Hints:
Elements: H1 2-5, H2 10-16, E1 23-27, H3 33-46, E2 55-59, H4 62-75, E3 84-87, H5 88-99, E4 110-112, H6 114-123, H7 143-155, H8 160-168, H9 177-197, E5 200-202, H10 203-216, H11 218-227, E6 230-233, H12 241-251, E7 257-261, H13 275-279, H14 281-284, E8 289-293, E9 295-296, H15 301-311, H16 319-323, E10 330-331, E11 338-346, H17 347-364, E12 373-377, H18 384-393, E13 397-399, H19 409-422, H20 427-434, H21 443-456, H22 460-464, H23 474-494, H24 499-509, H25 512-518, H26 522-544, H27 550-562, E14 580-584, H28 585-588, E15 593-598, H29 629-645, E16 648-659, H30 670-677, H31 679-684, E17 685-689, H32 703-706, H33 720-728, H34 730-738, H35 747-768, H36 776-786, H37 795-819, E18 823-834, E19 837-848, E20 854-860, H38 869-884, E21 890-897, E22 902-906, H39 912-929, H40 938-942
Parallel strand pairs: 1-7, 1-8, 2-3, 2-6, 4-5, 6-7, 9-10, 11-16, 11-17, 12-14, 12-15, 13-14, 15-16, 20-21
Antiparallel strand pairs: 18-19, 19-20, 21-22
Amino acid sequence: MDELLQGLNPEQLKAVTHGEGPLLIVAGAGTGKTTVLAKRVAWLIASGKAKPEEILALTFTEKAASELEERVDVLLPIGYVDLWALTFHGFGERVLRERGIDIGLPADAGLLDETGAWLTVRENLGRFGLEYYKPLGDPSRFIHDLLGHFSRAKDELVTPAEYLRWAEALPEDAEGEKTRVLEVAHAYDAYSKLILEHNQLDFGALIAETVRLFRERPNVLSEYRQRFKYILVDEFQDTNAAQYELVKLLAGPTGNLTVVGDDDQSIYKFRGASIGNILSFRDDFPKAASVALIRNYRSKQEILDVSHAFIKRNDPNRLEAKLGLSKRLVAERGTGAAITHVIATDSDDEADFIAEEIIRLKETEPETNWSDFAVLFRANSHARPCLDSFARHGIPHLYVASKGLYLKPIIQDAICYLKLLDNYHESPALHRVLHWDVFAIPALDIVKLTHEAKRHNWSLYETLGKTEDFGFSPETLAKFRQVEGLIRKHAERARKTTPARLLKEIFVDSGYYEILLKKETPENLEAISFLNQLVRRIQVYERADPRPTLAGFMRELDWELESGEEGTVPNDFAEGPDTVKLMTAHTAKGLEFRHVFVIQLAARRFPGDNRGDAIPFPNELVRDQSVEPGEAHLEEERRLFYVACTRAKDRLYLSYAEDAGGARKKKPSRFLDELFADEATKRQITVVQRQARKSLIEPESVAALAEHAFKLALPTSFSYSQLAAFSKCPLQYKYAHLLKIPTLDTGTMGFGKTIHAVLEKFIGHYKDHPDSPMSAEELWAEYDSLWKGEWYEDADDRDRHYQAGREALAKAHARTLREQPTPWLLEAPFTLKVGKYVVKGKIDRVDKLPDGRAVIYDYKTGKARTPDADMKEQLIIYQLALADVYQVETAAMYFWFVRDDELQEVKADPKNLEKARVKLEERLAELEASDFAATPDRFACKYCDFRDICSYKVL
């Protein structure tokens, strides 16, 4: 316990060791919020106040939930079973899967993302009775706006029936406003019914329906209150009305609820977040304790003082004013920060100043990395001048955006090739494919080919088949034949395999992958990440379509593009190479950098205009009426600027360009006026006026700077499959778990997943109802519902595996009824501490003997064989997990080869446990120190997912 609490300041210690009842932790920027949350969870467990599975931690992002869990992993001296660290939506989904049936919701409801919801509405637009919001020339124009409106209604816990009653009670008006509002209300009702008919829920419904479940079924609410002794909420200032109501229901009026937040960092009102929640917490929980964390471990004092003086302009609508507490942050790092206001002539000049300043600091401070710099802006459209300047100056950089996947060059390459297979005569698509670097076709030859196509009025593909007649060199002709051959081959494959598998074959056969892997540059790693995201998008389509085809996916993609969707971009930049980051101020929340540039601080840019929604949400239906609408926008923009400034540790640059490309010169942002209006603040800021454009630095002069080595970040926890991959070949591990090169489930892997899922359902039912087990017919029905056909090469392969699965499950069914086991745990999760490392996993099945000891079963769907040393190690790790985490001794361990219905025993000797622990720690240390060089082996290479792209393979 002393070690756990070591290093906490008095305020943090008070927050971590708070006993019973509600607690509000006001955590200023950089005050160790995540540390406090993680240590509070660990303290509750270590002090015996709660088991891990009795703690619920709610966050807003998967990343935040993972980070919290990872920190708890490190803090706890032993492993644990299950910690509910989830996003609000993840929690709602889990609850509704368990108990949604109590209010008539299907347990197997699909989850609609924004694009899926748009497609559903687009396909059923006639059911919505739209007139005002269905223009003749563009009937789908308002779908996104309507969906956003419906989502806001769910965030405010306004049901379709309540919306309709309110709309019908409106007075008649000459302008037809009531008619318009009624149209929206009826559309909301139609949408809610439509998605339920399709057995689907959207993200807003996950929270709203969970609240309805708890309100209408007090017995279910009581069950969850008893399950969770302690509830913690991160970023509480960002909760909306529905999320706060969910938390209040779970906690009850006197529950053990800890909320952590900072009203000065509430920047998501456009998502429905209500700053009123944190401002009124003490009213809702009058006996709540409060702790203010004001010791900042990130920034130097000058940055904190300037930021605090600025944000005080939001008084009196701040906790500091309302609760009478001090939120002036105190820098543990002392003073010495540099704050600079830069006035440039135009946007290009502003961008060049930033590039030159980054290079200057990189050269004069050798310990500085590229990733120490961040450029922040109000809107994505403001990034272009810096992107161009960084490219000219040879500065390695990464533009961090959550949207725009389909605009990335590698994704456009992929989509064009798939378009070509769907229709040979897509000449623009073929034109782009011919320009792929891997083919190295001279640009003039492509121009000539295009000219001949136009001259003869042929498609480009037709012309490609007649190139012998046009005087091309033998080298170019060979390349044209290569492209034509690949297109024919893949068009044939498109008729036999799934789109995701086809995409992988295209990138392997063409050599595109080989080029990406030759050099691990930031651009190549980024391209691989984008491609991985496209594969995932295709797999979403494949899971929803029982007979997925390339034509089907391209049709869905066309609709998606028609909706204005640009595709989601993976946000793993923290794990990537050393680069300067460019991002919006919203994206930067939760991050920190040594040197921060906040740019384009011009009027109507930052703060941005209050544009409002295309379909305004009625103010009468908004629960939070704490701030006037006009003031609310300006105050939120101030909070956003405050967040941007407090990302900086050592240097903060605030830049403004007089000429941003419009007809008139831009006025400075009002935020600059507000900063300089405070005399103390004004003395802290150095003003730099750019008098004239400097000559550009040639890329060659900074080439040495751009040649940077980087180390890929290792995971914070490991699974047995990761360790097995590393043992077979470190390069295989690197490809799969560090570079994350897209892989597809093979028929063998997919078959194994299906059989495991069916056995979990069957054995789970038997565990709960031993006197009425599933019949063979019920087992086949489960099998059919879980069967996925997209994993297999062709129809014959699919049918062979399907029949093999039926035969295997018939044997498993017979064995279970014959032996009548006593299942205790299914898919049993564990988090195992091994020295400083963490190993996570799941055990397929654990039975309990009358004497309290356990029997482990691991299902295998391959051919039965005698377990080798690596296989035995897997079960010994499970034995170790049962001993450490579940405090149970293992009596026996088996591999169950279900296709042959054969059990292979591995001796459960307690003497092996310590040896296994030592060996595991040594293996993890070896992985941590590895350079991930290939160790090719004929057998391992034959079954490696990356054999087609690995230059070290032996076959």
